[in-house]
Structures are given as structure tokens and as C-alpha cells.
């Protein structure tokens, strides 16, 4: 089903390629410059988007086995993701029930129990409080009520989504609007996590805009890779999530083939963004690989950081393949840091000097337009109306 959908998108890309057209939207849209630096707006985005929407906090490949865990900071919330004995993924606030200490330091690893560094209260990978140090001295408590605070969580398509609000009633499947079945075609559940590196950038939306735009490729990236891809994009969306294809006559050679014979690697090319903060791009070098870019707002409106998580279909097993993979990671860090984010950081400085009231997104930048519309919509939606918003978006 999702394969047929991928082929359908490729056929649309082919038709655009043949006709010399691209998927334009109706209007040029203006975005107020304040949206990128206003402190109140930024606080609202953190509270209503990052603290309420399901976020991609990890990949299956980072914690593949029972007992594996990942601890991280996500938009100011310390999160502990754990694969329990049954293999099921759970997510918790990384906070001890005794006096609130952080249970596990940031990073990934394997631990068959979580023991608090402060007074050694101990939890199972399923989040149950299993032991209290010097329990008789402490006094009697009902351990069954003192487990870790669980967060809504979903593992699908080899990707792990977590909602940072423990009381959220938003169904993560509804939020995904069927997009996870498309992402499932990558087969990431069985891939290997090779490397993660971090890049620092401007306001999270300036940074994210760059992942929704091929328009800049042959210009900003002319020295690195941009002339290979062209500057035109076709945007396909599932709820708030967007895939970027491009007009492509190259599909002609597959046109007469049954869907199953279209090459899946190429069908999965382009960029797959997951609202509000993820971009997945495929690349060669050291074997079949993806870079999952995970953006988070920084401490101020003018800052963000991006974890570049590299997954490979299989672990590079020779020195040559390892070196090739590492070269790719270095290259992608360079491109994002020195080209995209350096441009974004300089752009950011221009926005609050009073020179322009708005920036623009053209008819060829429908992906960015849609992203900003979704940001505005979510900011304006009350908690209780969120489930309905995504249910209606997926129909
Ligand atoms: S805060 Fe964790 S055991 Fe005391
Ligand atoms: Fe770029």
C-alpha cells in the first residue's frame, strides 16, 4: 500500500519533470520577522509545540535490545527511554520519585535496573520502583504508586516518538496521519546506529526552513553538492508532515514496470520531514544510510541545536567502509554548519533591526509555508482540541 503510494508520488514527479512544471502553491506568503525572535512567541512555541506535540526522540537502532536505554534532554525535559523485558519501548521523565534527582546521565547504554545516584532508590526498565535503600529507616510507602512518571510513547517504522506532556490525550498515531507507513518503507527497525553529532544553529524555525527548501541548493551549496539536485521541489503532505520530491524525468525508465519493481532506494530519496523538528535525508557513502536531523530550540529564541543521527542499513565492517562513512558525516556536518546554519545565523541578526517587517515564502516554497501555517494553527489550538485537529487532518 505504502509502496504503491511511493510509486504514485514518483509518477507525479515524472509528470512534472516531463511538463517542465513544479508543484506551486497559489500565493506568496509573508511571515512577520518577530516570529523568529520574539521571546513571548518563542516561549509559546516551546510550551505548545515542543512540550505538547509528539517528538522524535530516538531511533529503534539506538536501543535495539531489552534493557537498552537512552537518556536525553528534550526542550528542557529530561527523558529516559527504556526497552523493557518484553521488548516494549517506554518513556519516562528521568526523575526519581524520592526527591527528584536525575536517574540516568545523558547517553545510551544497557542497564537492567536504574539506580538513583542520590540515595539508591532502584527502578526496573519498565519504570517500577523495585527497591528502597534502607527501607526500614525510611518508613513505609506503597512502592506500587512510586514508579517513574510515564510519557506517551510510540515506536513505529524504527522511530520512537514521545510526548513530553504526561497528561496528553493526543493519540500519536492520529498525529502521524499515516506518514509512519511511508517511513516504514525504509525498514529502519533493523538498521544500525553508527554515529551522532551535534550542530549549533539559529532560531529553530530558521534552521528548519532550510530543510524544506530546494530553492537554495544550487546557490548556497554550489561548492558542496547543490548543483546535482536542482532548485525545484514537489511537496507531499500527511497531516503536518511533508515529503519533498522534485520534478524528475529520470523516472521514465521505470514507467512500464509493476510497482514492486521500482527501485525503493530512489523512491525514498529526497527529504522526509516529520513535524515539528525532524528531517530525514538519504545519502551514499559506506553503504545505504540516512541522516536523521533532530532540531531543538536552544536557551534563547536566537539559538537551536541539531543532533545529526546517522543510521546505516548495516554496520560498516571494513576500515575502508568506516572511513567512507566518517567522511560523509564530516561532510554533512560541514555543509549544515558552514553553509546552512552560518547563513541562518547571519540572517537572524538582520531580522530585529527594523529594516523589514516580513520575510517571504514563494509559490515554489509551499513546504515552508505549510510548516509555518501548522505552527500557527497549533499555537492557536487548545489542549482539548488537539486530538480532533489531527484526526481531521488525516482524513
Ligand atoms: S532522589 Fe533518588 S533516591 Fe533520593
Ligand atoms: Fe541547505
Indicate the topology:
Layout: H1 2-19, E1 29-32, H2 39-50, E2 54-59, E3 68-74, E4 77-83, E5 89-93, E6 107-110, E7 114-115, E8 122-123, E9 129-131, H3 135-138, E10 150-151, E11 153-156, E12 159-163, H4 172-176, H5 179-183, E13 192-201, H6 204-209, H7 217-220, E14 234-238, E15 241-245, H8 264-267, E16 271-274, E17 278-283, E18 289-297, E19 304-312, H9 319-351, E20 358-361, H10 366-379, H11 386-394
The structure holds FE2/S2 (inorganic) cluster (FES) and fe (ii) ion (FE2).
**What small ligands are held by the chains?**
FE2/S2 (inorganic) cluster, fe (ii) ion
Report the average pLDDT across residues. Answer: 95
Number of helical segments with 4 or more residues: 11
Instruction: Write the CATH homologous superfamily of the largest domain.
Output: Naphthalene 1,2-dioxygenase Alpha Subunit, Chain A, domain 1
- The helicity comes to 25-40%
CATH class of the largest domain: Alpha Beta
Question: Strand fraction band?
Answer: 25-35%
C-alpha geometry: globular
The tally of beta strands, per DSSP, is 20
Task: Using brief descriptors, characterize the structure shown.
single chain, 395 residues, alpha+beta, Naphthalene 1,2-dioxygenase Alpha Subunit, Chain A, domain 1, Rieske Iron-sulfur Protein, 2 domains, 7-stranded antiparallel β-sheet, 5-stranded antiparallel β-sheet, 26% strand, globular, binds FE2/S2 (inorganic) cluster, binds fe (ii) ion
What can you see in these coordinates?
The protein is α+β, with helices and mostly antiparallel strands and 395 residues long. It has 2 domains: 2-53 and 188-394, Alpha-Beta Complex (Naphthalene 1,2-dioxygenase Alpha Subunit, Chain A, domain 1); 68-155, Rieske Iron-sulfur Protein. It is 29% helix and 26% strand. The protein is built from 11 helices and 20 strands. It has helices at 2-19, 39-50, 135-138, 172-176, 179-183, 204-209, 217-220, 264-267, 319-351, 366-379, 386-394; strands at residues 29-32, 54-59, 68-74, 77-83, 89-93, 107-110, 114-115, 122-123, 129-131, 150-151, 153-156, 159-163, 192-201, 234-238, 241-245, 271-274, 278-283, 289-297, 304-312, 358-361. The strands form 5 sheets. The protein has a 7-stranded antiparallel beta sheet, sandwiched between helices. The longest helix is centred in the C-terminal third of the chain and has 33 residues, at 319-351. The chain is globular. The chain starts with a helix and ends with a helix. The relative contact order is 0.17. It binds FE2/S2 (inorganic) cluster and fe (ii) ion (FE2). FE2/S2 (inorganic) cluster binds at residues 96, 98-99, 101, 116, 118-121.
Amino acid at each position: 500500500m505504502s509502496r504503491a503510494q511511493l510509486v504514485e508520488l514518483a509518477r507525479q514527479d515524472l509528470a512534472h519533470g516531463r511538463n517542465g512544471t513544479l508543484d506551486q502553491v497559489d500565493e506568496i506568503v509573508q511571515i512577520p520577522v518577530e516570529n523568529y525572535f520574539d521571546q513571548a512567541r518563542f516561549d509559546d512555541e516551546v510550551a505548545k509545540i515542543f512540550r505538547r506535540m509528539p517528538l522524535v526522540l530516538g531511533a529503534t537502532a539506538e536501543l535495539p535490545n531489552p534493557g537498552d536505554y537512552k537518556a536525553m534532554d528534550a526542550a528542557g525535559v529530561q527523558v529516559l527511554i527504556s526497552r523493557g523485558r518484553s521488548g516494549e519501548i517506554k518513556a519516562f521523565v528521568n526523575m526519581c520519585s524520592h526527591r527528584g534527582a536525575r536517574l540516568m546521565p545523558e547517553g545510551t547504554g544497557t542497564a537492567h535496573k536504574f539506580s538513583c545516584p542520590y540515595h539508591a532508590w532502584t527502578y526496573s526498565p519498565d519504570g517500577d520502583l523495585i527497591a528502597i535503600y534502607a527501607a526500614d529507616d525510611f518508613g513505609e510507602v506503597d512502592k506500587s504508586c512510586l514508579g517513574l512518571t510515564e510519557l506517551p510513547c510510540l515506536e513505529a517504522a524504527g522511530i520512537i516518538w514521545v510526548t513530553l506532556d504526561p497528561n496528553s490525550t493526543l493519540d500519536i498515531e492520529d498525529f502521524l496521519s499515516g506518514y509512519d507507513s511511508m517511513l516504514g518503507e525504509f525498514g529502519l527497525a533493523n538498521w544500525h546506529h553508527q554515529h551522532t553529532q551535534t550542530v549549533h544553529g539559529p532560531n529553530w524555525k530558521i534552521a528548519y526552513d532550510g530543510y524544506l527548501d530546494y530553492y537554495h541548493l544550487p546557490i548556497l551549496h554550489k561548492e558542496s553538492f547543490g548543483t546535482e539536485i536542482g532548485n525545484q521541489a514537489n511537496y507531499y503532505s500527511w497531516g503536518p508532515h511533508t515529503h519533498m520530491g522534485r520534478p524528475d524525468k529520470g523516472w521514465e525508465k521505470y514507467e512500464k514496470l509493476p510497482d514492486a519493481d521500482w527501485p525503493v532506494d530512489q523512491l525514498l530519496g529526497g527529504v522526509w520531514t516529520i513535524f515539528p523538528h525532524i528531517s530525514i535525508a538519504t545519502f551514499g557513502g559506506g553503504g545505504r544510510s540516512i541522516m536523521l536531523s533532530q532540531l531543538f530550540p536552544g536557551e534563547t529564541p536566537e539559538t537551536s541545536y541539531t543532533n545529526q543521527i546517522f543510521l546505516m542499513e548495516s554496520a560498516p565492517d571494513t576500515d575502508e567502509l568506516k572511513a567512507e562513512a566518517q567522511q560523509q558525516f564530516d561532510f554533512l556536518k560541514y555543509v549544515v554548519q558552514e553553509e546552512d546554519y552560518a547563513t541562518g545565523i547571519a540572517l537572524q541578526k538582520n531580522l530585529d533591526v527594523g529594516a523589514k517587517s516580513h520575510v517571504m515564502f514563494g509559490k515554489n516554497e509551499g513546504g515552508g509555508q505549510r510548516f509555518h501555517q501548522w505552527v500557527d494553527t497549533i499555537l492557536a489550538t487548545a489542549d482539548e482540541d488537539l486530538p480532533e485537529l489531527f484526526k481531521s487532518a488525516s482524513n
